[in-house]
Amino acid sequence: MTASALAAAVHPSRKTVVSTAALLLVAAVIWIVRDYRLPLAAKSQILNRGKGRQRLTRLDSKGVPQVWVPPGCFEMGSNPLYDMRAHANETPRHTVCITSGFWLDRYEITNESFRQFVAEGGYEQSRYWSREGWRMHEGRRTPYPMLKDFDKPRQPRVKLTWYEAEAYAAWRGGRLPTEAQWEWAARGPESRRYPWGEKFREDFANMDHLDLRCTMPVGSYSANRSWCGAEDMAGNAWEWVADGYDAKGYRNAHINDPFIAPTGILRVIRGGAWGGVPGGGVSDLRCARRAAWPADNRKLSHGARIMHVAP
């Protein structure tokens, strides 16, 4: 080592010291805020003021248990300063208001309920299907065969295309929730990171860390219950929602009841899963996580749940 190099190492320049200090400061800030919860926007707090949160349940006309999701406002999406696992398509974090309450399935669609749909002619009556969906599935009179480890009555129905989920919803007299409705039901007025709160708990949901390699019967994790009573909003199966996919859709989102109308083949899936694709990791189980998948594809990690508008 030359004398000049040794001197530089022993007595670093002012510029080097400042740069190092700045990096250390940034690292310290990230460390401090990694679990810091940003306060709910003042607008959301004002809009939610005075609204009660009574938990209501019912059985719909097909005997499926549902929970009441009241209207209200929350912060949708993610802020990377708050959540370092945030994806670009979750930004910016923004205020959203759901202006009307609705009934949402307490659990994901189960095999036993989907079998009832099939038994009552769900694949034989075009009135349940969109034109595109009927064209896609015309000629098929039975659903895709289910693998042995996924076919128990109370396990979520997976290997569903978006079109099958849409048809099943029509048979039930409902529809798929929008992204905003789904995230509101998962996060609630506190805009939680996970349905149960801010801290990740791998024993609260069926996810890939558990290495179970299949779905579990719905409601198996009592702690995995959102503020309104919806269960398994994180893990077990990804859930189709009504929206088409736009990676930049949040940049100009409406405050009231936003919805991205489908214009192509991609649809949004939410909630994470036991594993499979696109995954079931810590990041995937966050309420803000959104992923895209072709509407006509079926995967062992893809299911759905249904909503009904208030009568």
Explain what the structure shows.
- This protein is of the alpha+beta class.
- The protein folds into 2 domains: 3-33; 42-112 and 134-309, paralog of FGE (formylglycine-generating enzyme), CATH 3.90.1580.
- Helices cover 23% and strands 14% of the residues.
- The chain is built from 7 helices and 10 strands.
- It has helices at 3-10, 14-33, 42-48, 111-119, 131-137, 162-171, 179-187; strands spanning 57-59, 65-69, 72-76, 94-98, 102-105, 238-244, 266-270, 290-294, 302-304, 307-309.
- Strands 1-2-5-10 form a 4-stranded antiparallel β-sheet, with no helix packed on it. Strands 8-7-6-9 form a 4-stranded mixed β-sheet. The chain has a two-stranded antiparallel ribbon with strand order 3-4.
- A hairpin with a 5-residue loop joins β1 (57-59) and β2 (65-69).
- It is globular, with a radius of gyration of 23 Å.
- The model is unreliable at 30-37 (pLDDT under 50).
Name the CATH homologous superfamily of the largest domain: paralog of FGE (formylglycine-generating enzyme)
Count of separate structural domains? 2
Q: Rg from C-alpha positions?
A: 23 Å
Structural class by helix and strand composition: alpha+beta
Please identify the top-level CATH class of the largest domain. Alpha Beta
Fraction of residues in H or I helices = 10-25%
What is the CATH architecture annotation of the largest domain? Alpha-Beta Complex
Number of helices: 7
The portion of residues forming beta strands comes to 5-15%
The residue-averaged pLDDT reads 88
Encode the helix/strand succession as letters. HHHEEEEEHHHHEEEEE
- What is the 3D form? globular
Low-confidence stretches: 30-37
